[in-house]
Every structure is written in C-alpha cells, then in structure tokens.
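Worked example 4.2. Below are the chains of a multi-component assembly; read each line carefully before continuing.
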Amino acid sequence: MLNINTSANGSELTVTLEGRLDTTTAPSLETKLTQSLGGVSSLVFDMAALSYISSAGLRVLLSAQKTMNKQGDMVLRNVSDDVKEIFEVTGFTDILTIE
Amino acid sequence: MKELKLDAVTDNLPQVMSFVDEALEAADCPMKAQMQIDMAVEEIFVNVSSYAYAPGVGPVTVKIGIADDPRRAIIVFEDQGVPYDPLAKADPDVTLSAEERQVGGLGIFMVKKTMDDMSYVYENNSNILTLTKRL
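Applying the procedure described above to all two chains together yields the following structure tokens:
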C-alpha cells in the first residue's frame, strides 16, 4: 500500500510518499513521475511516512535521480532511520541528496 | 516451522508478506529487523518468480521459524526451478555515480548486507535458500 501525493509550486514538485515502496507499488510511482517531471527543475520527496523500501523502490528513485541530473535537482526529506540504512548499505547515500 | 506453498508469481507477493509478517509479529520482532526481513523476503521471492521457472510458472515453498540462543528468524525458500545460486553472483559496485549505476543485482546484495547469514544448497532437484536474521 502506497499513497502518493504531489504538489507543484512553479517548477518545484513535492512528492509525499506514505506507506510501502515495494515491487507491487513502485510501478505506480514510476508512472506518476513519468507524467509529472516535465518542466520540473526541483523535485522534493517527503518520506516522513514511508515505512519501507525494496530494490524496486530504489530503482525508481535512481531513475528519477538520473532524470533530474539533466534538468535540475532532487532532494529527499524526512527519511526514517530504517529507510536510511537501506540507502547506506546500497551506496545510495552517495547518489541521492538526503536532507 | 510454518510453511506456505504457492505459485512463484509476483502477484502472490502480498500473500507471502502477510505470511511472514504474521509470524514475525507473533514473535515480537523489532520493527527494524522486520523491515529488513520483509525486504529480503521480497527480493528473494521476486527473484524466484522472475527466473526459476521462466517462461513458465511453478511452485515455491516459503518456511519461517523462530529459534533461540541467539534469538533469530530463519526463513527458507525452496523451488524446483533451474539450479541457481544467488550467492555465486558478484556484488554490484555500489561506489559508482547515478549515471554509471546498474540496477541489476542490487536486491541480492541488499539481502546479503542486512541478513546475518545466507546459505544455498541444491538438493533433491530443489534450490534451497536459507536466510537467518538475529532478532
């Protein structure tokens, strides 16, 4: 179960994730991002309510990071310690900007 | 050990996760260990679903038990698909930049890094993968 809420402010897009970003829910985030990233120069993920992430979720974040490298920047906010540990073991802390 | 046998297809993932989470919650598993076990179970189940019987479909048995001294969760996956040892695969280079990163192989690597032990045997025409995580 994953709830995705987006709010746009000019060229800044904030994506709030709530629940689990896994094999079954990652495709819906991928679709949402594909539809929404045109013209966005600042992408912010609010992960305060994201309780879980698997490699399927990491894949979507990596793909979003690659897109944003070409058109602006991407930031992750309010990442929980458990999710942060997954970023650490996979080296994603070096790729992603975590505030 | 509790046991669940079902078709190895990604659509069955929620069923596998409920089976595992019920067992972990009954054992008062700490949240962090549960998240890591969930992740490991997901990665392995999705792997078996994607490759073991491709392009066909076949069964997988998932077992879970709790042992003491030290207290730990033991999860076993058994399938009769093509012999495949996930431990034999080289680890991905996790120091590369976003542009250079490949997404393949990350799942198994995450499992190796977060579980306390991971072992594989091929026996009786079955792939048997055992994960152990201290609670």
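Take a moment to check your reading of the output against the notes. The radius of gyration of chain B is 15 Å. The CA atoms of residues 86 and 108 of chain B lie 7 Å apart.
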